[in-house]
Amino acid sequence: MARDTSDATPITDTAELAAYLEAGCKPEADFRIGTEHEKFPFFKADNSPVPYEGERSISAILEGMKAKLGWDAIMDGDNIIGLAEPSGMGAISLEPGGQFELSGAPLATLHETCRESNRHLAVLRSVAEPMGIGFLGVGGSPKWTLAETPRMPKSRYGIMSNYMPKVGTQGLDMMYRTCTIQVNIDFSSEADMRRKMALSQKLQPLATALFASSPFTEGKPNGLLSWRGDIWRDTDNNRAGLLDCAFEPGFGFEQYVEWALDVPMYFIIRDGRYRDCTNITFRQFMAGALKGEVEEWQPTMGDWTNHLSTLFPDVRLKRFLEMRGADGGTWRRICALPSFWVGLLYDAGAMDAAEELTADWSIADIHRLRDEVPRLALKAEIGGRSLLDVGREVIEIARTGLKTRNNLNASGQSEAVFLMTLDEIMAKKATFAEDLLALYHGRWNGSVDPLFAEFQY
Fold first, then answer.
1. How far apart (Å, rounded) are the C-alpha atoms in residues 323 and 346?
2. EC number(s) for this protein (predicted)?
3. What are the boundaries of each domain within the chain?
4. How far apart are CA 265 and CA 283, in angstroms?
5. I need a labelling partner for 283 at 20 to 30 A (CA). Which of 158, 397, 420, 455 fits?
6. Which ranges in 359-386 belong to alpha helices (H)?
7. Burial class of residue 167 in the structure, from the number of CB atoms within 10 Å of its CB (0-12 exposed, 13-18 middle, 19+ buried)
8. CA dist., res. 451 & res. 160, Å (int)
9. Which CATH class name applies to 32-187+203-240+318-455?
10. Is the pTM here over 0.90, yes or no?
């Protein structure tokens, strides 16, 4: 999230929190696609991490991008920590370890999404290359230790860094050493949200498998194909993972609110300063937990919006649904992930077919699959079938959905053209992570350094 919210509208009861989410409902004709992607900056000379400060730095890149784009600076105190397109059509933000993120504009077609990514990467290269800086799109930092990884001067990250070791073993790795591609999907009603939430939770492990790209840690194979996927198994299980309640027939906005109310908070912002609130839940906050400690102790809609942004389920509900299961990846994968989800979730026939395919999957099956995928990827099984076989069928369903949308580019190609990357995985029966391991054990002679040169943006 590029900018924390400061909406001072007071909250009087929990019904307002559900109403906030329900306000995201929109007609199908107004559905849009929002794509977010993160990448690791590095110095090309020695593949070392890029610091926040200095002439060649993260802050210098942000200043250069600001001058090129004319976007507004997002500040945390005296530090520039992001950029926002003035009309709200996109933002650039920093993850804790300097991972550079584009939160794309809400766009109508995948063709527009890919053009947006191309433009962003072109401007980014024009600013960063004179500094000797490149960007790597994989799911996990392949070389640097946690101690070597820089820390961004963003107040919420200081609070999170102190809290993470108390609630899981891999939270700091999640913050500082992972990258993702995410897709934001709209819904037309509570019932539509419910269907999309349940189906996309079932298929999130498949997305993790298809986009697995994090087989290295600190210069060596880590025994996994999606280290990032494994990290999320023990980051903070109060706020992350699968939401079992989302599979219940009565699940809706109120049920998500009830879950979110009992998740510990990270912070509130008062007078421009961040106050650590990790010792209370939002429900306790609503009950007056900070009365007498903070002058403006009453919860606001800005507090609620910020709290929602600190919840990390595999599928996150805001005024849209965020698909959060995929590792970061190359440019082609930035286009492939939204094509996968849009094909499945923006066509009624595709949703019906995908629901039928997954109808017999139990909650226990899905949890087991989620646990196995980081190590096995497409070799993991569910319902007696490998994810490779399931993936072939799901990709065909997505292809049909995209063709039905009938959004053509200038060459007459439908949005299904962006599934080509996934078709190649199916044909090879191997993920990008397995390709990288083959290179490491072969031509790269046991080094991860060639990864930076060969797969930079």
1. 14
2. 6.3.2.2
3. 32-187+203-240+318-455
4. 10
5. 158
6. 363-376
7. middle
8. 30
9. alpha beta
10. yes
